[in-house]
Amino acid sequence: MFDSLLPWGPDELWELFQRVVPEVPTRPQGGGRRRHGDREVLAAIVYVATSGCTWQQLPSASCGPSGATAHRRFTEWSKARVWAKLHRLVLDELGDRGELDWSRCAIDSVNMRALKRGN
Predict the structure, then answer these.
(1) Closest by alpha carbon to 23, among 84, 91, 77?
(2) How far is 73 from 79, CA to CA, in rounded Å?
(3) Which end of the chain is more exposed for a tag (fewer CB within 10 A), N or C?
(4) Where in the numbering of this chain does the Insertion element IS402-like domain appear (predicted)?
(5) φ/ψ (deg, to 5) at 88
């Protein structure tokens, strides 16, 4: 599923992802359903992001977690800034491999404030 996204395969992407994903929270009360593995959920999130389907349309029979589970984890990881960390890690990895020309990525660091109406 990840093959077309990056110049490396799903195992290499998974290795990068493991470096930024938060640890699984413990359930002090015990019991309940087994938590879907992070790798399964990541694959489901990538599927939703690349296929254009909604969370509710996620084919859990082939992806594993339900759309609700994938969305819940997506939200959890978004709050933990996993996607920004992963993005930076991917850029660093591409730079280290010489596959990214940082000179073409430079952005002038200018702060701009939006004006409020009436100012």
Answers:
(1) 77
(2) 10
(3) C
(4) 11-87
(5) -65, -40
Query: Which amino acid type is present at position 10?
Result: P
DSSP 37-86: PHHHHHHHHHHHHHH---STT--HHHHSS-HHHHHHHHHHHHHTTHHHHH
Please state the pTM of the whole predicted model: 0.72
CA distances to 80, 92, 111 from 95, rounded to whole Å, are: 24, 5, 26
Burial level of 70, CB count in 10 A (0-12/13-18/19+)? buried
* pLDDT confidence of residue 107: 58
The token pair that represents 17 in the structure block: 């992802």
